[in-house]
Amino acid sequence: MAFATACTKTPSRSVTATPTEPDLLAIQDDELRENLFTLSSDEMRGKRAGTVDELRAAAWVAEKARAAGLQPAGDDGTYFQFFPINRTKVADNSTIEINGKSLALWQNTWITSPAEVAFDAPVVWLSSLADTAKYNLSGKVVAMALQAPSPLPAAGMSLWNYRYVASALRQQTNALKNHKAAAIILVTDAEAESDFGFIGHVFEEGTYMLEGEPARQNNSAPVVLVHSSVAPNLQQKNIKVKAAIKIDRYTYPSINVVAKAPGSDQALKDEHVLFSGHHDHDGIGATVDGDSIYNGADDNASVTVALLAIGKAWTQQPGKRSALFVWHGAEERGLLGSRWYVEHPTVPKESIVAVLNADMIGRNAPDSAALLGSIPPHRNSTALVDMALNANQQYTRFNIDTSWDEASHPEGWYFRSDHLPYARAGIPAVFFTTLLHPDYHTPRDEAERIDIDKLARMARWMYATGWAVSQAPQRPATDPDAKLER
């Protein structure tokens, strides 16, 4: 049957799905809405990885999975897989002074990368990079205005101002790093200052890594951004900058929630169709229009509640293969939860026949969607892609945008979600999404802005795709020539 004619309304149960078809009617708009508003409420405080708020959200997901009939599939018979993450940040008692006058760390001064260093050196102000030929900069503090990167980030890119600053920093410091300066101070321009609440918060938070990964060593001159109001002090004669920059290191627990619905076929139930998403977001951050809670309704509460609905449908009508559900932690800190799970799976890795990942599935035009991993060089299983496209054609009829899957797309969206570690491990993987929007990584990503009808359709598309994988006599093959461009 063609589900497209009913896809914008809550389906009726007047027709009972046969055992050979996915029970799309089991996914209900009202339940998605209720769960979405709870998980992305202010009470959840944005669910930042490594905080009690993330653990609270994970416990909520596990309880909902249990209530849906899903079995625990984490460590030691639980729904949980804890893993440690290491955070390195500039210590709050670090100091920077200009001729004895302290700068306000994280207010008009931002250290761009954690480093433990002390210096007391004269300032050389450069009007441009060409001025480097005029001075011996060894042991000096180089100060100059932040210069616009070339090329500029593509118009309309997400987090444009942050990308602008990151590119400018990279280009300018690369040009200066061989001059053996004691430090580099760059004065923010209007583009940087227009969104520096968010940008500065990123620098303040520091870096996150999985435990056991080698620490990133910053052996080059520290790079400091200062507000334009500081520039006149740096341009005077006989100026010295003294700094004592220290770092703090923390180890936090993060958590994957893992559950399963056993398959019905004795020969196939030991194989798993893995449904993937992440349950964390950005937590409490820079205030925007009076709101500092980054709720993450689309990113990624939309997928979290969709997986719960799919799990409930699977328990009511099991597929031949088992369904495995992994709600990853610490995705926003660098895909840490999915990277950990790929290295420490709670089922045999070879039993995972396909990964159906999703990220942000509740916004933008009602009939538009994207399937990443569907065209080369990101496609690693033509068979799996065909199953997903066939499920869409048969049931949900979205207009599929493939442009974001192109290697040339400036967002690099394929490389920014939890399917990636699985694909790198050689497991067939696709990525369902309705793409970015202006509220991405802002406090405006609220439940009220989610298109519940569209969210339900996306959940049904994922479910129908997983059902097709589950019922197929043969697991989807990986393409022998599949190779990511980076």
UniProtKB/TrEMBL annotation:
It comes from the Bacteria. Gene3D superfamilies: 3.50.30.30, Zn peptidases. Residues 256-463 form the Peptidase M28 domain. InterPro entries: M28_fam (IPR045175), Peptidase_M28 (IPR007484). It holds the Pfam family Peptidase_M28. Residues 7-19 have a biased composition (Polar residues). Residues 1-20 are annotated as: Disordered. PANTHER family: METALLOPEPTIDASE M28 FAMILY MEMBER, PEPTIDASE M28 DOMAIN-CONTAINING PROTEIN. This is M28 family peptidase. It comes from Pontibacter rugosus.
